Amino acid sequence: MKLLDLLVLTVIFLGYKAILILICTLSSFLYVYDTSTSFVLKQPENILQQIITSLMRWDNVYFVTLAHRGLLFEQEWAFGPGFPYLVRLFTDSIFFGKSLYNYALVSIIISHLFHFFSILILYHLTFKIYKSRDMAIVTSLLYVISPSGIFLSAGYSESLFSFVTFLGFIFFEEGYSFLAALAWCIASTIRSNVPQIPNFILSFPCIYLSVRSGAYLLKSKNRVQKFTEKLSLYYTTQLLLTILCICVMHVQIFTRMISYLPGIYWWLANYLLNDKPIFWVKIWVLYGMVQAVLFGAFLPPA
């Protein structure tokens, strides 16, 4: 990776994160739909605690609680143990106190770090497959503004899951099948999805992009064989997961799930590099902003 590319990715990553966190924090001063956070964290006493509180929503309440005291109730088995365990490991290594604010802060830091690491791995993976620096940088920038949005900033398992999944793709491309399988096995301890009926209206943009990009590459397979014979496997998997989403997943699960499907980013990057309209990029950014507002106010369907 060129130093300039790394600098560009870092600056845009930090800038976009700052915007999302600011929106989320300001939204937390609105009427809060759910008060679960108040049962776990005490009233914030400073700006850092206010930011942490605004990012501790929905599943993160479970993740932080699990990191703090382990599994206790039956419904908590719906969450993979990988992310809470990592949060506990780092928190207990860094802090002496058992404050839940410490666990929440570490969960947020881990999410940010592994989102950034995932961006770097996706850059490497894209360059290896497409042999194009432009394709790699545009794909990576698209992943910065992924529709997963605030979930890649709050203490959720999406960032860590994407990192391990992308790492498996790298091993797969390098021919290390065992290491790829091992990485994906580890990934299965991080994410688990609960079947629900999807809201097709809200999820339509992501479902459309997933189907469109997968179908496009499989249809034009002969044109991309010069890059790698394995490329079609990415899109076949993507289409199968999209079908699974339509059948059993909730909208907000799928918009987060595509954070580890590189095919969507590759298709959209190729779309942009050929001077096509940036409509979908605008949709992604808008969705990310709205999502941050909903998340900060503890409102569905963030």
Automatic annotation (TrEMBL):
Care to name a GO molecular-function term for this sequence? Answer: GPI mannosyltransferase activity
Membrane disposition: Multi-pass membrane protein
- Which ranges of the sequence are coiled-coil? none
Q: Which Pfam families match?
A: Mannosyl_trans2
> A GO BP term, please?
GPI anchor biosynthetic process
EC number of the protein? 2.4.1.-
Entry keywords, A to Z: Endoplasmic reticulum, Glycosyltransferase, GPI-anchor biosynthesis, Membrane, Transferase, Transmembrane, Transmembrane helix
Any idea where this protein resides?
A: Endoplasmic reticulum membrane
Main localization of the protein described in the UniProt heading = endoplasmic reticulum
Give the transmembrane ranges: 7-33, 100-123, 135-154, 160-187, 199-218, 238-258, 279-299
Q: Which InterPro entries match?
A: PIG-V/Gpi18 (IPR007315)
Protein name per UniProt: GPI mannosyltransferase 2
Origin species, per record, is: Pneumocystis wakefieldiae
The organism that produces this protein has a lineage beginning with:
Eukaryota, Fungi, Dikarya, Ascomycota, Taphrinomycotina
